[in-house]
Design goal:
alpha/beta; Amino acid/polyamine transporter I; 58% helix; 779 residues; six-stranded mixed beta sheet
């Protein structure tokens, strides 16, 4: 061992994958400059020494999963130092501000609570949260004119009615329901329908139904948002005079540009929403400022459109015989509120206070833009140039040609940002669904410093493929918008139901009834209006919603069946048997250490699945058995573990707690734990003679085992339960094995499939028969 330590301390040079130690001759130089004694001349001691050196030298060619003596990396220490400095500066600043009077004390309390704000995170909020609602002015007025038969068919009553409905929809749905009410109801800072359900799930099992339906509908619309937002913005290029002929000669050019932008957008998701949000936030600040300015320029010609702030205009026109669209007009109005649910879902990414402080600016900019488009429509409703135009978009037409160039560039960027808002919202929703065991445990990465900033590679890939499929099917924004928004009305309705339940059990029962009646009436009207889109493309989002709902429902039902089957053994039941197997020298070792990786959090008892695996078929004898579970914490750099040995030196139940920024280097951490227990005397010393993958001679061989379940043909389970389990296993197979998540790919873990021991049907006994010819042959 001393010889080996001396060798490993020497510098090593790696060339082309082969390792040679500097300061000593390699094998070729030995052959040239020194003679090696043949085996016939060597003595027994020399042979043993040479054999040992050869084994140790071969051992150095493998890479050991070692852990550092430090508890934090250099990067982590730097991050913590910066955080401590920022906190100290903030504390000093708050103390100084608090001494300046009543406003200072209010600001100090604000910055010390959950509504804390910062300029940097407000910029991120602009980029991450408001993208979807910020692109609504691109197509809302255009859709309104198309539904009324063109600009020549609308009058002052129609324009003021549309503006009134848009203003009060944004005010009631986005401002009142989501910003003022829903965002106060968070689950450890996280928002969204699944986080809301987690708070009230104990109030009734039926609440899972609206939560699942709403979450599935939100994820379905997340597929259409990138397609409709980016394609509608890219189509603005067709309004530029120098490019008109180019797009006329190449009708598919718009689609090709949209596809390229979407692919690039999904490729950069792995960088994290924080870095993306900072870049996008600055652009969104410019975008909303631009919306406000161009709106005010057109408003300056007709301030009378502000009469639409009176809700009477909206109600009167909705039920007026002059409304050619009828109740379907509300489907158009709904487009102005489509980003509200994403706003609530992305709350955990940027913080509630930053949304509170930025929303007034966003709403003022939107109102100015919508009312500016209304003023332009009234000014040009009798202009022959526009009444004969094939596809009229008031947003682009209300600007001069020079300004339109800027508008197209900004609108394309805003379309990308709108897609980002829904993508980050989808990541959050899937993460919440995973915690509820409604979806498989997918690999999650945290590329930023905060818990809310996450990236799920599988979800990113599925969203990208589905969005490209939508573009291939519908071609342009006009046809995509026919499918857009229908599923999101379902999400809003289910969110209203869950919010009302929370408010009811919070003791505000009258308020819960008023909230439920008011917002259900508005959103059911939205849903009925949006159903007019069903045959024109809405069927696609509904089909997506049903598919996602099927995944969540079957995964939840399958998990319930598996957990109902799970049994635990007490130490007095399993220790005598394991102790006998541990000392039974007639059975060879399966491995020195057998490590079972499990999701079971129970540490004082043993899962019967592990016990069954040890004794099924041929008993798996080992020097030590390990049951290891991994828990991800809300702190970034947690690294800790606890061990339960049941009073033995051969069975260890280990629970590892890792921060969400810590890599899942389970083999390296297990080696550290084994060394710690060996030093403390809890684990008998193990020596490995031959080289192995981990190159650790002080720990014996390790075999990792993962257990998957399978349904037996004889299982006594309903058809629905069997379908749920089979679907769950198919989804798990498609989503990928947890081998990569645990960092076990190089170690070739054993994946066992065990029967799911639900109650089984006993088949009738066989009847033995005697053949007559067999009796005759015997004579």
């Amino acid at each position: 061992m001393a010889d080996r330590n001396q060798r490993t301390k020497r510098a090593r040079t790696v060339v082309g994958g082969a390792a040679t130690e500097t300061g000593r001759p390699n094998e070729a130089n030995k052959a040239k400059g020194s003679a090696v004694a043949p085996d016939s001349i060597r003595g027994p001691k020399e042979k043993a020494k040479a054999e040992k050196e050869a084994l140790l030298r071969a051992d150095t060619f493998t890479n050991a999963p070692k852990v550092s003596r430090r508890t934090l990396t250099k990067e982590e220490r730097e991050v913590l130092v910066k955080q401590a400095e920022a906190e100290n500066k903030e504390a000093e600043k708050l103390a100084t501000t608090a001494a300046k009077g009543r406003f200072g004390r209010w600001w100090a309390r604000l910055q010390s609570g959950p509504n804390k704000v910062s300029w940097g995170m407000m910029i991120v909020a602009l980029g991450v949260v408001y993208g979807d609602i910020g692109t609504s002015p691109l197509y809302t007025a255009q859709t309104f004119l198309a539904g009324q038969g063109g600009i020549g068919s609308v009058d002052r009553e129609a324009v003021l009615g549309m503006l009134s409905l848009v203003f009060w929809s944004i005010t009631l749905i986005t401002t009142v329901k989501y910003v003022l009410i829903a965002m106060k109801i968070d689950n450890n800072g996280e928002g969204g329908i699944f986080a809301l359900y987690s708070l009230i799930r104990r109030r009734g099992a039926w609440l899972a139904i609206p939560a699942m339906v709403g979450g599935a509908a939100f994820l379905a619309d997340s597929v259409l948002t990138p397609a409709v937002s980016i394609s509608s913005a890219v189509e603005g290029l067709q309004t530029l005079p120098p490019l008109e002929n180019l797009f006329d000669d190449n009708p598919s050019l718009t689609l090709m540009i949209t596809v390229v932008i979407i692919v690039v957008l999904f490729m950069v998701q792995s960088r994290g929403t924080e870095s993306i949000g900072r870049v996008f936030g600055s652009i969104v600040l410019v975008w909303f400022s631009f919306l406000a300015v161009v709106g005010l320029v057109n408003l300056s010609r007709d301030w009378s459109v502000f009469a639409a702030l009176n809700p009477v205009y909206g109600v009167r026109f909705l039920f007026s015989p002059h409304n050619d669209a009828g109740i379907a007009l509300m489907g158009t109005v709904f487009l102005a509120t489509t980003g509200a649910e994403a706003l609530y879902s992305d709350m955990g990414h940027v913080g509630r206070g930053n949304i509170y402080f930025t929303w007034p600016f966003i709403k003022v900019a939107l109102v100015c833009c919508y009312f500016g488009q209304g003023a332009w429509i009234l000014a040009h409703s009798r202009d022959p140039h526009y009444t004969t135009m094939k596809s009229l978009n008031p947003f682009f037409q209300m600007m001069t040609p020079d300004v339109r160039y800027v508008a197209v560039v900004l609108s394309v960027t805003a379309g990308v940002i709108a897609s980002q808002a829904l993508i980050t919202g989808a990541f959050t929703m899937v993460s919440e669904a995973t915690r509820l065991n409604w979806m498989p445990h997918l690999q999650v990465r945290y590329p930023a410093r905060t818990r809310g900033q996450l990236y799920i590679p599988v979800v990113n890939a599925v969203l990208c493929v589905a969005t490209l499929l939508v573009l291939a099917m519908f071609k342009d924004s006009e046809h995509i918008s026919a499918a857009y928004g229908l599923a999101l009305t379902i999400t809003m309705i289910t969110t209203t139901v869950l919010l009302a339940v929370y408010i009811w059990y919070d003791g505000k029962r009258f308020g819960a009834i008023v909230f439920l009646v008011l917002f259900l009436a508005i959103q059911i009207m939205f849903f009925i209006a949006s159903m007019a889109k069903f045959l024109h493309g809405g069927w696609f989002t509904m089909l997506l919603t049903i598919a996602i709902l099927f995944v969540m429902y079957t995964w939840n039902e399958g998990t319930k069946l598996e957990r109902a089957q799970r049994r635990h053994m007490r130490p007095k039941d399993f220790l005598p048997t394991l102790e006998k197997l541990h000392g039974d020298f007639r059975i060879p070792y399966f491995a020195d250490n057998i490590v079972y990786l499990t999701s079971d959090s129970e540490t004082k008892r043993l899962d019967t699945d592990i016990f069954f695996s040890i004794f099924a078929d041929h008993p798996k004898r080992a020097r030590a058995w390990w049951a290891v579970s991994v828990e991800t914490t809300d702190q970034p750099f947690t690294r800790e573990y606890e061990v339960q040995n049941f009073g033995t030196d051969f069975l260890f139940r280990v629970r590892i707690r890792l921060g969400f920024k810590v890599s899942q280097s389970i083999p390296a951490y297990l080696h550290q734990i084994m060394h710690d227990l060996s030093k403390s005397g809890e684990l008998p010393q193990q020596k490995s003679l031959y080289p192995k993958v981990d190159a650790d001679p002080n720990i014996g061989t390790i075999r990792y085992v993962l257990i998957h379940k399978a349904l037996m043909p004889e299982s006594k389970v309903s058809a629905r339960g069997a379908l749920s389990l089979q679907t769950k296993y198919a989804i798990r197979h498609a989503a990928g094995s947890p081998v990569k998540w645990f960092g076990l790919a190089p170690y070739n873990p054993l994946v066992e499939v065990q029967p799911l021991f639900v109650s089984t049907r006993r088949p009738p006994r066989l009847k033995r028969i005697e053949r007559a010819d067999a009796a005759a042959d015997a004579l």
